[in-house]
Amino acid sequence: MAAIIAERRSYVAGTWVEGDEVFAVENPADETSVADVAATPLPEIERAITEARRSFDEGVWADRPPAERAKVLGAFLDYFQSARAELVATMVAEAGQPTGFAERAQFGAGLGLARGTIDLYLSMSHEEANPVPLDDLVRAGASLSFRRHEPVGVVTAITPYNGAIIMAMQKIIPALIAGNSVILRPSPLTPLSSLVFGAAAEAAGLPPGVLSVVVEAGAAGAELLTTHRAVDMVSFTGSTVVGRQILAQAAPTVKRVALELGGKSAQIYLPDAVGRATAGAVAVVAATAGQACVAATRMLVPRERKDEVLDAVSRAYDALTVGPPTDPSAKLGPVISAGQRDRCERFVRLAEENGGKVVTGGGRPAGLERGYYFEPTVLDLPDNANPAAQEEIFGPVISVLGYRDLDDAVRIANDSDYGLSGQVYGADVAAAVGVARRLRTGAVNVNTAVFSAYAPGGGYKHSGLGRERGPDGIRAFQEVKHLAIGELR
């Protein structure tokens, strides 16, 4: 395994910043310290904001032609490519992610997403005719009406621990290619890998102030970044609880807020696709240890075949190897912290107290005395009111529920405060699509899944506001201006 990234400082408006206070980044696989990183002093976070404001208002980036911005961002991503080995090693160490997942799903998919986003932006029209009835134009004395999509301004990007690189790419690249200035604040649990964004900005020659990367152990900087009047937009991925706080903090200055929050997604198996359930269950926990907001942790199967599914899924989970992320045989590593492991244990207890049964797993795996490991766990739940079916656990725990018919399956799936993602499996594709259309969720995968710069994702209900990726994800970082033009009378 390569050495981890050596940088320990923040990158503020084109300069590397030392901090008087340091905090330790922990390896969740063995509870050792990965490194000490210097926290960004609060005055330097404020300087990042004011310099982002200056750089945007002066147009040093926003006024460049899109093709020129794309060229600079291409060099920015080339730097990432050159840092692959160190970046993957860092993600493995600070997030406890298996090496293959860090390399493919974070680094590879993140880089591909970023390059695709640039191509998508360049293919879109950012000035377009606005259809106005001729009579309205004549009455106004106007000869032209059109819409212009312009950058929002200064953007705060706050990213989670479970996808530090790929989630940052989903925010930073569309924001920058659209002409915004950005301040990235990664999770305090996994800040090291995000420092590479500062190195990439420096290597590519981004103008000072256009991109800053600030790190902290607490939340004082994040609060400043979500309340400061010079910030125009906050883009956040994380828990619904914190998302609500950000909405409240942004409200007094009426900032635009984009939120990708929690999920309690359902995977629905039509009677002709029950044989696919085992693979779907394994996908929930493999590689991520269930720490994915889109994880389909509620499995809905025909009631009369529930016991069959429970048996098959339990045998598959029992066969999964839990272990250090550097072990090639390990299919899932640790959860991020002791607190997250405790949360898994608490919800297993709550499930049992409310009539559920632990079919397999439910505790800490034997032989792993250090590290925040939790067994892949299958819960047999009597109904969707069970706390394990209603709350996001964010660990390797799946709940199996039975449905009477497809109407009942849709009812159960929609009986949730969340609506981030969903899955429907059926050999009768028309029937499966019919179910998918009825789900109240931002994305539904029918018999497959697509992750692309061109395909949007986001939540209904408590799962968020706005969209990331796709044309909608680019428009999220743009304002719409209407121009009406006529001759002087």
UniProtKB/TrEMBL annotation:
UniProt-listed InterPro entries: Ald_DH/histidinol_DH, Ald_DH_C, Ald_DH_CS_CYS, Ald_DH_CS_GLU, Ald_DH_N, Aldehyde_DH_dom
EC numbers on record: 1.2.1.3
Keyword Oxidoreductase set for record: yes
PROSITE patterns named in the record: ALDEHYDE_DEHYDR_CYS (PS00070), ALDEHYDE_DEHYDR_GLU (PS00687)
Domain Aldehyde dehydrogenase: 16-482
Reactions the enzyme catalyzes: an aldehyde + NAD(+) + H2O = a carboxylate + NADH + 2 H(+)
Gene3D superfamilies: Aldehyde Dehydrogenase, Chain A, domain 1, Aldehyde Dehydrogenase, Chain A, domain 2
GO molecular function: aldehyde dehydrogenase (NAD+) activity
Active site location: E260
Name of this protein: aldehyde dehydrogenase (NAD(+))
